[in-house]
Amino acid sequence: MPGKTPSIPVKHFGDEYDLGLSIERFSFEDLPDMGEWEQPERHDRHSFFLIEAGSVALEIDFKRYDIQAPAMVYMHPDQVHRIISFNEIKACTLAVNDEVLNLEYLRVLEEINPTEPVLLDEETFKLLSSAASLCIQIAGRERDQFYKSLLKDHGNALIGLMISCMGRIKPGDKFSRAEQVTKSFRKILAHHFMNLKRPAVYAERLNLSTAYLNECVKMTTGQPVSYHIQQRVILEAKRLICHSNLSLKEVAVTLGYDDYPYFSRLFTKVAGVAPVSFHSKNRD
User: Fold this and answer.
1) What is the DSSP-derived secondary structure letter of residue 45?
2) Residues 220, 178 contacting (CB under 8 angstroms)
3) How far apart are CA 46 and CA 272, in angstroms?
4) Residues 64 and 99 in one domain
């Protein structure tokens, strides 16, 4: 396994960082040494990859994907990933922050995260590749009068096309009440799982009774609120154990557990293995 770092590194994209959106096309020759790409990392933005040629093997949150072009990959800023291998790769990468991203697209991405890589048919691939090429051309025209607006608009158009490839997405007004409640819960969970651990607190944030929140979440997902809280916490624990230099006790404290024995029991219950065993199995 690649060497660990004190914390999970966050990759920044492109020279257009101050614009909140960057796009580029790269090929096999442009990639750095494999050792650098093997390091696990997060991105500081929503990242979209259009795999135009070749193949790549990725690990995203402990799950391996072997991807053959043409394909598309979306990574949420929360997700930890690394490249395992690649062969004759050519790809277009687009990265965008929340401020630039169309609000409707942002809502959808938060709701469908995590997603899996999508294989593309030839017609869809040609459309996405053409849209990406146009966006890259616009990105190179910094002196145009409406440069920032043009880049933002065309970037969002490309993102909209890519999101549409991820499956059928319901309009906001087509969700049932239970689905709406569940999505609101998941949004709060994504941002506050480190310090909010009790279902009652989430219910209070949503102005609902704990029983009703549990009913909605279980109806939509098949699992109660506590299950989702624990799963999210332990996923982050796994990320920190594997990809940082924090001790197990420091991981527990980082996630809001001063009582390490309690954290250890919770980890074992959710992951099916004790944290010390998980650490030993996944250490360098």
Assistant:
1) S
2) yes
3) 31
4) yes
In a domain, 2, yes or no: no
Among 25-29, 140-144, 188-192, 233-237, the range scoring the smallest mean pLDDT is 25-29
- Residue from 261, 236, 266 nearest 251 by CA: 236
- The pTM of the full predicted model, rounded to 2 decimals, is 0.63
Average pLDDT for 48-71: 90
Same domain, yes or no, for 19 and 150? yes
- Check residue 24 and report its DSSP letter: E
169 domain residue, yes or no: no
Check whether residue 133 and residue 213 sit in a common domain. Answer: no
Task: Give the C-alpha separation, 253 to 263, whole Å.
Answer: 9
22 and 261 in contact (C-beta within 8 Å)?
Answer: no
First to last CA, the chain: 5
pLDDT tens readout for residues 209-267: 999 999 999 888 888 999 999 988 998 898 888 777 889 999 999 999 999 999 999 99
Distances in Å between the Cα of 165 and the Cα atoms of 74, 124, 150, 162 are 11, 8, 23, 5
